[in-house]
Amino acid sequence: MLTTELSETEVSALRTNKERLASDLHHSCQWGYGIRWGDGPTDTGMQRLALSKDDKSVRDWFIQTMKDLKCNVTVDEMGNIFAVRPGREADVPATFIGSHLDTQPTGGRYDGILGVLAGIEVIKTMNDMGLETEGGVGVVDWTNEEGARFPISMVSSGVWAECIPLAHAHNLKEVPTVASLPTAASAPETMKSALQKIGYLGDIPCSYKSTPMAAHFEVHIEQGPYLVSANQRVGVVTAVQAYRWFRLNIIGRDTHTGTTAFEHRADALYAFAQMMVRAREVAASKGCLASVGIVEAKPGSVNTVPGQVSFSLDIRGPETEQVAEVEKELRTEFDAIAAAEGAGIGKPCRVEWTLDFDSPAVKFHEDCIDCVQQSAQAVVADASVADTKSLVRTIMSGAGHDSVFTSKRVPTSMIFIPCKDGLSHHPEEFSTADDCATGASVILQAVVRYDRKRFL
Amino acid sequence: MLTTELSETEVSALRTNKERLASDLHHSCQWGYGIRWGDGPTDTGMQRLALSKDDKSVRDWFIQTMKDLKCNVTVDEMGNIFAVRPGREADVPATFIGSHLDTQPTGGRYDGILGVLAGIEVIKTMNDMGLETEGGVGVVDWTNEEGARFPISMVSSGVWAECIPLAHAHNLKEVPTVASLPTAASAPETMKSALQKIGYLGDIPCSYKSTPMAAHFEVHIEQGPYLVSANQRVGVVTAVQAYRWFRLNIIGRDTHTGTTAFEHRADALYAFAQMMVRAREVAASKGCLASVGIVEAKPGSVNTVPGQVSFSLDIRGPETEQVAEVEKELRTEFDAIAAAEGAGIGKPCRVEWTLDFDSPAVKFHEDCIDCVQQSAQAVVADASVADTKSLVRTIMSGAGHDSVFTSKRVPTSMIFIPCKDGLSHHPEEFSTADDCATGASVILQAVVRYDRKRFL
């Protein structure tokens, strides 16, 4: 059986195996399982930091599994693992399904993991059916997507896309808080040394030129509440919102809390508090998000007004220009807030901005989106509701994913499935076996449809 | 010459030696000098943590100096050093002048140090004049007033007043940030072990019963801008404002910054920001102060909305009741702020309060205040202005001092002198030699006047 010889009805009837997918997924979670939150055997979170011992174990299992499925496996200089099921045409790039097997220190069983396991399930289904594709079909495990151990998210797909220099990635040092976890080394080490230590520093250059792809599809839990609260089954991801990460410093003046009237203070923390309140107002007014995740106040004494505060600011929005607008308005507003605090003594606060990361909005590829859209409608047709069309919606991703970087070089799109309470990066992160299987079936069809689009 | 035989005019003419006081003060600052801020030989801050090597050196010097001045020196279980110049009457308690020789990690040359050095200068002046007192005159160095190394301020005068249990004070562990300073031990140690290590664990019980005092006077830099900005020379301290220190925890929910709309968040840090802004408004409306010196947000990741925040809250006001009112209103307001954040998902933030320290307002003793008031007027009469009376004002202390605890057991009052920009707990803390000498002359007269009040 060959993809290009299937009828449209036959393509729409393709399904993956729900039980096998669930079984494989939880099997792979034996390496690095984390905090227990329920009584069931799989009721734990995950703690599988990139390039840890547990990450090595699941990588070894992934490679063995793919070899058993007759795939050719290669590993590049960033430890990205590419497993390709050959197609009929030998010299064309494969269509890839990919995500990541690493997790946050207190992560769950679905973020990233589902994306790779859905790929494995697609290959198993194709093998079972004896379904031949024109181009090959690959599954990729991208290294350190979370950025939890080595502090750049999606760093290895970034190197592959030649957006991040290899040396910069190799020299990343693991973050100290993570170094203290049992899964990490006792002393902070570089990403390159961690790759070497577990035997995953491959010899293939990490580049889209050395490991080309025809396209990249990724299934992922939504990590938000929209699908689950609307009882929808599939999100056809058309875009990823823009975001900018800043580090800000406010410089005021240390003074005694007991002897310094408000009008004599240049209280950097009070300025921060006003800025954070204002940031939400401004972002909301422009349909964007603004968040502070990290704040540090110095000197950090009960009876000293903090003279120095540093904090992170994460601005996100549907369009790059909207994020820039929020930034612009906040720069003006923050300057005004700083200037007012301490004005009474002629020593106002100052605020300084540093841009740490800039990710413009990403629009996924129309061809890929079409494949996912058609596949999603076909799969949800199984549901016992009158209007199955309403079970699918287009959606924008709020978070970054490896697909952001692949989309810079090859046609890409993503599929979201619902997760409980929209919760993610949390041990209780959960998606039902049904929803996981729906995601895998959609990506199976999408890959088949894309193969037909290429060669029909 | 005997105090009780002096005329009022003779008392008013008593002055200390400006040059000698300045010279002794800076001499004592050779032990533990800190950050340099100017070119002059004494243009440095101080870094003399309680019971450090440098603190031992200055204590040794203090004891030797007092013995050379024919004082009897005793050391109690908290390392408090009492040096008494005997009076004519052998069996009555001495009138004490006291403060502390320890400093903040980035402190200056005047806070505390001036108080002890003024005491030394008073004894030197009395010796030079051959002035006999009816009761003895003592100088006391209270241990760890700053609370910078062992985290309770005024802890040793607190034990002396039997307001703080001895065992609690002895078991205090030095704070970790301070432990990393060169002046402290390499591993955190207890106050008792630190006292033993430098040979200052005395055998006299630390109590007002074992070391009784007739009264306690303290001269101190203002640590605020009122005197200096009004060109006034002396503050007659009549009271110390009330304060309460709290530790608050806000419990929200960790979520992804990119995928969680504002209405789906229970952002503990956003709740904190609103609380801090509101705290200033409420405190100001009631003539009080509210300050946050410490804030910690967890988990502390750029792209995670913090689910947990803890912070310190320092509320101060002229009257105990005013502080209680601010606390009461803030409890209500903070609950409302917490309840609103996360209400959209039915999982609002919660806020919990813990009281760490409660210091009711202190009214100093009328007799002591009178002595200081008369002495201050007499000393500023030297000034070449028409209305010297206006150079003296009554003032309330915003900060705590050892005099807060002595006032619980014996008549007490304080004298403030101006400091540059009202700056304190800062290397550039500065008072002129003239102002220091004014403070010492005022305390000299106040002690003489108090002695006359007792025995005339």
UniProtKB/TrEMBL annotation, chains A, B:
**Gene3D superfamilies with a match to the protein in the record:** 3.30.70.360, Zn peptidases (3.40.630.10)
- Which InterPro entries does the UniProt record give? Amidase_Cbmase (IPR010158), Bact_exopeptidase_dim_dom (IPR036264), Peptidase_M20 (IPR002933), Peptidase_M20_dimer (IPR011650)
Q: What is the name of the protein in this document? A: Peptidase M20 dimerisation domain-containing protein
- Give a yes or no for keyword Transport in this entry: no
Entry similarity comment: Belongs to the peptidase M20A family.
Organism, by scientific name, is Penicillium desertorum
Residues annotated as domain Peptidase M20 dimerisation: 243-338
Pfam families assigned = M20_dimer, Peptidase_M20
Q: Name one GO molecular function term.
A: hydrolase activity, acting on carbon-nitrogen (but not peptide) bonds, in linear amidines
Q: Which UniProt keywords apply?
A: Hydrolase
**NCBIfam families reported for this sequence:** hydantase (TIGR01879)
